[in-house]
């Protein structure tokens, strides 16, 4: 969290909204990373092994 953001709106719902947005972005990012690792990762490793086999 940026301390400047906390200083700007230390009262009210503003920091709470920032916290929700940050938590949502972190969750979305981790979900995206998991999805990429599960879908793109295996196909990438298959491609890599296929290219390595072809070059051998």
Low-confidence stretches: none
Query: Sheet with the most strands?
Result: none
Residues in helices, as a percent range: over 70%
Helices and strands: which structural class? mainly alpha
**Quick one: overall form?**
rod-shaped
Order of helices and strands: HH
Overall mean confidence score, pLDDT: 79
* Count of DSSP-assigned helices: 2
Query: Rg, please?
Result: 21 Å
Cα distance, first to last residue?
50 Å
Strand content of the residues, in percent?
under 5%
Total strands: 0
Keywords:
56 residues; single chain; mainly alpha; 2 helices; 86% helix
Word description of this protein:
The protein is mostly helical and 56 residues long. Helices cover 86% and strands 0% of the residues. It contains 2 helices and no strands.
What's the structural blueprint in terms of helices and strands?
Blueprint: H1 3-8, H2 14-55
In short:
The chain is mostly helical. The protein contains 2 helices and no strands. It starts with a helix and ends with a helix.
């Amino acid at each position: 969290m940026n301390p400047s953001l906390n200083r700007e709106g230390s009262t009210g719902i503003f920091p709470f909204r920032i916290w929700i947005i940050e938590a949502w972005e972190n969750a979305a990012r981790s979900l995206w990373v998991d999805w990429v690792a599960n879908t793109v990762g295996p196909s990438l490793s298959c491609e890599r092994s296929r290219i390595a086999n072809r070059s051998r």
